[in-house]
C-alpha cells in the first residue's frame, strides 16, 4: 500500500507543487490549508508523514507540531521561509524530524521525504531475528522492529530520529559517538560544520529519558568528543 503524506500549507501553489512531485514517486497525498484542518485529518486518516509549513494564520505550524507530538510519533518535515539557526532549532525542538527553508528544490524535498520514510518504516532484518533487534539496558527495553521503547513496562514516546539515535548509542554501549558519527549514521547524509541537528535532537531525547526514567541519566556527554551510553 502506498504511503500517505499530509501536506499542510496555506499557499495552494506550494502545496500543489509538492503534491505533483510526491505523486510522481507513487505516494498518496492529502492536504490541509490550516492547522486545525491538519489536526482533524491526523485523527481521521492514516498519515505516514507530515510536510508542515510554519507560517500559517490561526494555529501555526509550531502549534500543530506540538499538538501532534502529544500523541503521535509520525515523521514531520517542517518547511518555512525563516532561515535563521534559531528558527530551525525552534522547529526541531517542538518535535519536527527535519527542516527545510523556502524556496526549496522540490527534488531535495522528495529525497528528504523518502529518507524519513525509510528510516521510520524500513525493516532491514526478518522478524525471526527479532532477538537481535531488542536491546535491554537495566529496566529499559529498545525494540528495533516495533520502534518501541519501554521503561519498567511504561512506553516512552520517541520520534523516529530520537529512536534511531537511542538505538545507535545503545547498540554499542561504552563507545563514544561524535555528532558527525551520529548525523551520518542516522541522517545518511554528509555532516557539515555548524549543523546543530544532532544537538537539538539529542537534547530532546535526553529530556524525555530523564523524565520517564525517574531522573536516571542514561546518555552521557564526553566533552569535546561526543555521546555514549554505559550499559
Automatic annotation (TrEMBL):
Gene3D superfamilies: 3.40.50.2300, 6.10.250.690, Winged helix-like DNA-binding domain superfamily/Winged helix DNA-binding domain. Keywords: DNA-binding, Phosphoprotein, Transcription, Transcription regulation, Two-component regulatory system. One of its GO terms (cellular component) is cytosol. Residues 132-231 form the OmpR/PhoB-type domain. The modification 4-aspartylphosphate is found at residue 53. The keyword DNA-binding applies. Residues 4-117 form the Response regulatory domain. It comes from the Bacteria. Pfam families: Response_reg (PF00072), Trans_reg_C (PF00486). GO terms for molecular function: phosphorelay response regulator activity; transcription cis-regulatory region binding. One of its GO terms (biological process) is regulation of DNA-templated transcription. Transmembrane segments: none annotated. It is found in: Cytoplasm. PANTHER family: REGULATOR OF RPOS, STAGE 0 SPORULATION PROTEIN A HOMOLOG. This is DNA-binding response regulator. It comes from Paenibacillus nasutitermitis.
Amino acid at each position: 500500500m502506498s504511503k500517505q503524506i499530509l501536506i499542510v500549507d496555506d499557499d495552494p501553489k506550494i502545496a500543489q507543487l509538492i503534491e505533483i512531485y510526491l505523486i510522481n514517486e507513487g505516494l498518496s497525498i492529502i492536504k490541509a490549508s490550516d492547522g486545525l484542518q491538519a489536526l482533524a485529518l491526523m485523527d481521521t486518516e492514516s498519515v505516514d508523514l507530515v510536510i508542515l509549513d510554519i507560517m500559517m494564520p490561526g494555529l501555526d505550524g509550531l502549534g500543530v507540531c506540538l499538538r501532534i507530538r502529544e500523541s503521535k510519533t509520525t515523521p514531520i518535515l517542517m518547511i518555512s521561509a525563516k532561515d535563521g539557526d534559531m528558527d530551525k532549532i525552534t522547529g526541531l525542538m517542538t518535535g519536527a524530524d527535519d527542516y527545510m527553508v523556502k524556496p526549496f528544490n522540490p527534488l531535495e524535498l522528495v529525497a528528504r521525504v523518502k529518507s524519513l520514510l525509510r528510516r521510520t518504516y524500513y525493516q532491514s532484518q526478518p522478524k525471526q531475528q527479532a532477538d537481535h533487534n531488542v536491546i535491554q539496558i537495566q529496566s529499559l527495553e529498545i525494540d528495533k522492529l516495533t520502534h518501541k521503547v519501554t521503561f519498567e513496562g511504561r512506553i516512552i514516546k520517541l520520534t523516529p530520529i530520537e529512536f534511531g539515535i537511542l538505538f545507535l548509542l545503545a547498540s554499542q554501549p561504552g563507545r563514544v559517538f561524535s555528532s558527525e558519527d551520529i548525523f551520518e549514521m542516522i541522517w545518511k547524509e554528509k555532516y557539515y560544520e555548524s549543523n546543530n541537528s544532532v544537538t537539538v535532537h539529542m537534547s530532546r531525547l535526553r529530556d524525555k529519558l530523564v523524565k520517564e526514567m525517574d531522573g536516571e541519566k542514561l546518555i552521557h556527554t564526553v566533552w569535546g568528543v561526543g555521546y555514549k551510553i554505559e550499559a
